[in-house]
Write a structure and sequence with these properties.
It is built from 25 helices and 5 strands. By secondary structure, it is mainly α. It has a domain of about 150 residues: Alpha-Beta Plaits (2-Layer Sandwich), CATH 3.30.70.270.
Length: about 600
């Protein structure tokens, strides 16, 4: 292995000056780093040369230069560090390569670099660094809509960060996990992870991390019917983001604030904030952030009956996302395009964009993604529950041994146990069965139907134009609509039926021992009762709520849980495509 040389004074001085210039003068930083390279070559100073090349890569990235300019100095730096046996220098360089590839939308190359970086961090024994890279992989996969894979890496990042005892790394992993859970519509667990991240971030001096956590918290709370609390977090996020001097972080905080103002009906103020967010996202070179800002601006214009302007903005946003894989953001763009075209009477265009939106939803939040995500979370929660159970058992043993307040402690533990059982079954907003409990009951009923040769029908119920209710009337009104609909469904069900919230505005009804024809009659009555549901007192613009219902059924050996849900979902899609407020039945399944 070549002996590492100490950087010469001139090279060290130039590299130090380049680091200082990186804060706001990338062109000057590049000039100084190139001068350091020339001097290092003249001096035969390999460590100084590696540093100069690394700084050139950073300067190119700060100036948003093309990959063709950014990568060559980083590749040379990585080879030099490798030859010098400098694992830490190589790890820093590989991390920059990963970030450069990610900025250029090359997911595979970014992941390869991150995995190489993880190997280097492991060789260095740097668990905090390893956790950070695992979290970066999770964040990358989330941005590309691969939620289950993202969750896998983020849960690994949490575990490694906890082993390292690094609060910042744990907070980083928790924050990204919260955003994935939010994207999967698991609001309670998303909020739990983000609040834990917030508590940890308060103890470390990292304004960018704190800003990102408060931004995610603010947006989640605002969407969950707590706009004032959401705005409080977003205002704090903006202060911290500006202190971080990172345009991308500031753009996200501004975007969140603009959306809260839009939700409150303050459209002119929202536009000013969103335009600033767009400018900063452009400066940071973040395509997805630019597209999201354009989407928010388009909705702003649509809410002011400026449909043509909204369409132009949405076209610009779709063009930005063109090189990227389809993701949740593209789905939201298609959803708004569908609503605008439908309002204009352009039904063919509306149907095209609705199909694109629905296909994206199926891909991102379909059965496979949800099942894998739930399995990962279930394993993590089981481990936590086992640790909690051991702690409770120790506490109980201590109470029994001491003889103090035994019954009180037993009662408290019993109450906690019952609460945990209830939380494991119930959706927090509606009180109906949650997604996990629905899946458990569906598997149970399918097994029972096969064993006793009984019929089983499954209905998927989706509130029509629910996004429009949230946008026009507020998320608080939308939540109350869901609660009232849940009460109606609960009251209409038999004791043997199972009704639950599947996610968002979607509900599932399991009808054991019910043939398809009888189930169809039940669903038609439900559709009529939903259309007659009293909601006029919630908002002046809310006259009626309707729902589309997809229904499928099978009997005996033919009953397969996932196939039934997929068939019912396909019929729900048909009901939407054929005009909504109707029941569509999978006759083939019956």
């Amino acid at each position: 292995m070549p002996a590492a040389q100490s950087p010469g004074p001139a090279v060290a001085h130039l590299n130090a000056a380049a680091r200082v210039a990186l804060a706001g003068q990338p062109a000057e930083a590049l000039r100084l780093a190139q001068a350091a390279e020339t001097q290092a070559l003249a001096d035969g100073d390999q460590p100084g040369l590696a540093t100069a090349l690394l700084l050139q890569g950073r300067a190119h990235m700060a100036a948003q230069a093309p990959l063709a300019q950014t990568l060559p100095p980083l590749e040379r730096a990585a080879l030099l560090y490798q030859g010098l046996g400098d694992l830490a220098g190589e790890a820093r360089t590989v991390n920059l390569q990963a970030l450069a590839h990610a900025g250029g939308d090359d997911l595979e190359a970014a992941l390869r670099c991150h995995h190489r970086g993880i190997t280097l961090r492991q060789r260095l024994g740097d668990k905090a660094g390893e956790a950070g890279l695992l979290a970066n992989i999770g964040a990358l996969l989330r941005e590309h809509g691969q939620y289950a894979e993202a969750l896998k890496y983020l849960l690994m990042a949490q575990e490694v960060a906890q082993q390292a005892g690094d609060a910042r790394a744990v907070a980083h992993a928790l924050a990204h996990t919260g955003t994935v859970l939010d994207a999967l519509d698991d609001t309670p667990r998303a909020l739990e992870h983000l609040l834990r991240a917030q508590r940890l971030a308060e103890g470390v001096a990292d304004p960018a991390l704190a800003a990102a956590v408060h931004t995610s918290l603010g947006r989640l709370l605002a969407r969950s019917g707590q706009p004032a609390e959401g705005q409080r977090h977003l205002t704090r996020a903006l202060t911290q983001a500006r202190a971080s001097a990172q345009p991308a972080v500031t753009a996200q905080a501004l975007l969140g604030l603009g959306l809260v103002q839009q939700q409150a009906g303050a459209l002119p103020g929202a536009e000013r904030v969103l335009l600033e967010a767009l400018t900063l996202a452009q400066r940071a070179g973040r395509r997805a952030a630019q597209a999201e800002a354009l989407l928010a601006l388009a909705r702003n214009h649509w809410l002011q009956d400026q449909g043509e302007t909204a369409l132009r903005l949405l076209d610009d946003a779709l063009a930005l996302l063109q090189p990227l894989p389809p993701d949740h953001l593209a789905g939201r763009l298609h959803e708004l395009l569908s609503a605008i075209h439908e309002q204009r009477g352009a039904h063919a265009e509306a149907l095209y964009h609705y199909k694109a939106f629905h296909a994206g939803q199926q891909r991102l939040r379909g059965q496979d993604t949800q099942r894998r995500a739930r399995a990962l979370l279930a394993r993590t929660e089981l481990d936590a529950a086992q640790r909690s159970a051991h702690a409770l058992a120790d506490e109980l043993d201590a109470a029994r041994a001491s003889g103090r307040e035994q019954q009180a402690l037993l009662d408290q533990l019993a109450a906690q146990s019952e609460l945990l059982r209830q939380l494991a079954r119930e959706d927090g907003l509606t009180g109906l069965a949650n997604r996990r409990w629905l899946d458990t009951q569906l598997a149970h009923e399918a097994e029972r139907a096969r064993r006793y040769r009984h019929p089983l029908s499954v209905a998927m119920i989706d509130v029509d134009h629910f996004k429009r209710i949230n946008d026009r009337c507020s998320h608080r009104v939308g939540d109350e609509v869901l609660r009232r609909l849940a009460g109606l469904l609960r009251g209409a069900c038999r004791q043997v039926d199972v009704v639950g919230r599947y996610g968002g505005e979607e509900f599932v009804l399991l009808l054991p021992e019910t043939p398809l024809m009888a189930a169809s009659a039940v669903c038609e009555k439900l559709r009529q009762r939903i259309a007659a549901l009293h909601v006029g007192d919630l908002h002046p613009d809310l006259v009626q709520v309707t729902a589309s219902i997809g229904l499928a059924g099978a009997e005996g050996a033919a009953v397969q849980a996932e196939a039934l849900v997929q068939a019912a979902d396909a019929q729900l899609y048909r009901a939407k495509a054929e005009g909504r407020n109707r029941v569509c039945v999978d006759r083939a399944s019956g």
